[in-house]
Amino acid sequence: MFASLAVAINIGLETLETPSGRRALRELGHTFLTRRAGSSAGVPISGTWSRMDGYIDHFLQRLRNYYPLVAVQYENDSVIAGTSPGIGGTTLQNFNPEGSGMFRYNIERVRSMVATHEAFLRAANQQDRQKLRQRWQNFLFIFACATIHELAHLFTFYLAPGRTSSPSFSNGEGLIWGRWLECRLYGGSLEIYAGRNQGPNMPGMLFLVDKHNTAHRIDPAAIIEFVSNPRQHQLPFQYTGPGITAEERRSLRIRSTGSTSSFGVSLPHNNRAMRDLISGPGLIRYSIPLEDLHELSSGADSALRVTQMV
Predict the structure, then answer these.
(1) CB distance 301 to 132 below 8 Å
(2) Which residues cross the membrane (predicted)?
(3) Residues 61, 289, 140, CA angle at the centre, nearest 5°?
């Protein structure tokens, strides 16, 4: 479970570290601050627009060194991932990812990803191995996109220091920023539809839904290329086939099984437990070589080398 999720999280983070990812974060930051400056909500913001590149560098560097806590837990079926607000205590000059929020991933979807990878490792037939590897890489794609979506929320937490959650996150306003970043990077937000005769441990059909609510199926080759080398893949993603409108999806009875914009309920006891965990004795941290994560995302049979950090 740990290995597959670590690979997917790294793909998401590497995407934001690319020039196109940084440009998207810059635009997100400018848009967020502009809206907050014109808001009557009274949310404090500090810093200046001209220093946005420096904020992004600091944000990404801290994520590499102190990634937020990750919880794998039961969620609503349509949920891929979510963010629980943290304990605060962060500033623009000293971003604390661990204190800013915790990422929650749907345990059933994670288990399906892990089961697919284990089946790939056991398969002896080359054709079966290829099919299972591609299926696993589709799961990696889903969780990488979900990670990027949640990192957009975390970035707005960072830009509004002094708060324990994103401005208006609880009433839905903050939820737009993950979708905003996805649309800026990919051309739409990720939506998963049930495939014909879809069985257990299947990722589903992966689409991007644009601003007109038209769903476009992502080219399967683009998914594999992106997962294998997110730093070199050119965004936005290429589509295959015609777009499907919302009305057409209803008439064809195409069923959505999840999206990055679906969100569960962050229960208060979960937040309290996270705060107790963060504020308690020092957590044991581990590091993983990037080359191991890259090899595994390409479908290699290698294991991750995990080293405890001092």
Answers:
(1) no
(2) 139-160
(3) 85
Distance CA 181, CA 150 (A): 10
Evaluate whether 282 touches 98 at the Cβ level (below 8 Å): no
Over residues 21-56, the pLDDT tens digits come to 999 999 999 999 888 777 655 555 666 778 999 999
Distance CA 81, CA 71 (A): 10
Query: How does 78-99 read in b/e, with b if 16+ C-beta sit within 10 Å?
Result: bbbbbbbbbbbebebeebbbbb
Sign (positive or negative) of CA dihedral 263, 265, 268, 271: negative
**Model's pTM, two decimal places?**
0.89
In sequence order, which residues have a C-beta less than 8 Å from that of residue 184 and are 6 or more positions away? 24, 27, 28
Q: What is the pLDDT of residues 61-87, one digit of tens each?
A: 999 988 988 989 888 888 999 988 777
Q: What are phi and psi of 117, to 5 degrees?
A: -65, -40
Structure tokens at 42: 């009274």
| Cα–Cα nearest to 174, from 32, 288, 75 | 32
Beta-bridged to residue 218, according to DSSP, are 239
Q: What's the rounded Cα separation, in Å, for the pair 154 and 102? A: 9
The number of distinct structural domains making up the chain is: 1
Domain extent for 162: 2-308
d(CA 124, CA 19): 40
